[in-house]
Write a structure and sequence with these properties.
Elements (H helix, E strand, L loop, with lengths): L4 H7 L6 E4 L3 E5 L9 E5 L11 H22 L3 E5 L15 E6 L19 H11 L3
The protein binds zinc ion.
Length: 138
């Protein structure tokens, strides 16, 4: 993907503040941080979203997230974290190379993550449970 900014970062054709990398993943500071230490984990190969990414690559991403999280805890005294992954445009994915956000949290940092529950959807739980379970191993 020639026009992918994350592929450019992997190749060294765009600047990044790398905090960790190995043969399969790279972790670097988000250029638009919502808190100090906000880090992105990406696979070095280009995969679009969660559907496109092999599970082995996802496992590498999560292992790197664990490693980076401990470093954030020690280096920046991070007390809590949010992991965030947007897969697809309807979920707010803006760069179409899968990436996992590690967002450090601190007491009183006042970052709000908004989800508004829709309790009326509980009426559909039986039906939805059956639909999902029937497709879970396909
Ligand atoms: Zn890419």
């Amino acid at each position: 993907m020639n026009d992918c900014i994350f592929c450019k970062i992997v190749k060294g054709d765009a600047a990044s503040w790398t905090v960790y990398e190995d043969e399969s993943v790279k972790a670097f500071l988000d250029i638009n941080p919502v808190n100090i230490g906000h880090t992105l984990i990406i696979p070095k190969k280009h995969y679009k979203d969660l559907f496109d990414t092999p599970k082995e690559e996802l496992m590498h991403m999560m292992k790197a997230a664990k490693k980076v999280s401990y470093a954030l805890k020690k280096a920046l005294r991070v007390t809590s974290l949010n992991l965030y992954l947007a897969s697809g445009e309807d979920a707010g994915q803006e760069i179409h190379h899968i990436h996992l956000h590690i967002i450090p949290r601190f007491p009183g940092d006042n970052i709000k993550i908004h989800y508004r529950p829709k309790p009326e959807l509980r009426q559909k739980f039986d039906e939805i449970q059956l639909k999902i379970r029937s497709m879970i191993n396909l």
